[in-house]
Amino acid sequence: MLTIRDDAALQTVITTFEMTPGTCQDLLDALESAYDEFISKQPGFIAAGLHVNDAQTRIANYSQWQRREDFQAMLRSEEMRARNRKIHTLCRSFEPVMYEVAKSFG
Fold it and tell me: Which positions fall inside the ABM domain (predicted)?
């Protein structure tokens, strides 16, 4: 389960993808497959969510990991490097960025 709390000891990664409406569903399918078959099974994975904007030109991916090294190890694996090459063909750009929760409300 995703946890958004400023006192949570975990690593948050937000990745944004830019694409055309014509490739949005293909990219979403590739991301769902990556999470179902590989990412969710990696050490340190906690949870993730995929969000699509109304125009289908952006996908935001929010994921959480026990440690930043867990995320980095997954990203550097042969499996994920191959998947990212395919994902890159479906979008204009994508950028994973690690964040700390500065403050949470609610």
Answer: 11-101
What region, left, alpha or beta, does residue 43 occupy, with left being phi > 0 and alpha being psi -120 to 50 degrees?
beta
CA distances from residue 63 to 21, 47, 50, 55 in whole angstroms, order as listed: 23, 6, 9, 23
Instruction: For 19-36, write each residue's pLDDT tens digit.
Output: 999 999 999 999 999 999
Answer yes or no: are the C-beta atoms of 84 and 93 closer than 8 Å.
Answer: no
Exposure string of 77-97, with b = 16+ CB inside 10 Å and e = fewer, is eeebeebeeebeebbeebeee
The end-to-end CA distance of the chain, in Å, is: 16
Tell me, what amino acid is at 8? A
User: Which domains occur in the chain, in start order?
Assistant: 11-99 (3.30.70.100)
